[in-house]
Amino acid sequence: MQLHIAYMGSLPEGQYLPSSQHLTMLQEVVESSSLENILVRSYKRSFNGFAAKLTDNERQKLSSMEGVVSVFPSRTFHLQTTRSWDFMGLNESISRKHILSAFDDAIADGVDLITISIGYATENEFNEDPIAIGAFHAMANGILTVNSAGNNGPEASSLSSVAPWLFSVAASTTDRLIVDNIILGNGRKIEGTSINSFSFNGKKLPLVRGKEISFDSCSTDDAEICALGCLDSSKVEGKIVICDELYGYGAAREAGAVGTIMKIDPLKEISYVTSFPASAINSTEYNAVLSYKNSTTY
């Protein structure tokens, strides 16, 4: 027997007693004579559904019932770092206890779901930011939203909390450096940082700078940092793009590059998760890559 979540879509209009319906449904599928402790929770604020302890056979029966969208096992997600609290300088005996108790109080007050909003969108980006839009609708439906601010120099304008259901916390990262080496064609090893599982398996690929593959309408500065919309995908295919800034990663990937090398100066002891081959290096190593590129013909 395992804890499962039964998702039934949005809540019906008008008078509706979720717990009553959920118990009725369980009576039809549960094989034991007693429903005691079978129904763990009925969700009734943000969506229609419930959590219940079910056998695999009971799960299959419930999945086939009318009105049930899906039934899936309940999962417990664990932190991906062991020392975020210490890294942020939080005291174990006081700070952790108070922050965690705030979540406990919110859940005890009947909050069905907690959403996470990372960072913040500018006014122009808000209407296109899925995280911001999702957080807005969550708040409108009484769901506690955790808004995480950036840590690169907090300022008064970088975060605001104007509603009682919005819980603001500082964003954190981890001081773990994961090295991802770049091997140039002459055999020189350049030490970069990133978290990815990609490998070219020794295959040699050409290097190009943003200005060599950008549209004429883009300025040289925008081309060198690989600004979004500047890279010509017809000139990117099969190449590793060199970008003057970390933010060029997204544009290079969108244009179809097979990888990217980005300059970050100073290079912090933080490794970023990337969804395709990419590595960040400091300005000294970056200049070494450019020197190699300029001395090599393809």
TrEMBL record:
SUPFAM superfamilies xrefs: Subtilisin-like
InterPro entries on file: Peptidase_S8/S53_dom, Peptidase_S8/S53_dom_sf, S8pro/Inhibitor_I9, S8pro/Inhibitor_I9_sf, SBT
Organism annotation: Xanthoceras sorbifolium
Protein family: Belongs to the peptidase S8 family.
UniProt cross-references to Pfam families, sorted A to Z: Inhibitor_I9, Peptidase_S8
Residues annotated as domain Peptidase S8/S53: 89-205
Residue stretches making up the Inhibitor I9 domain: 6-80
Keyword terms, alphabetized: Signal
Protein's UniProt name: Uncharacterized protein
CDD domains in the record: PA_subtilisin_like
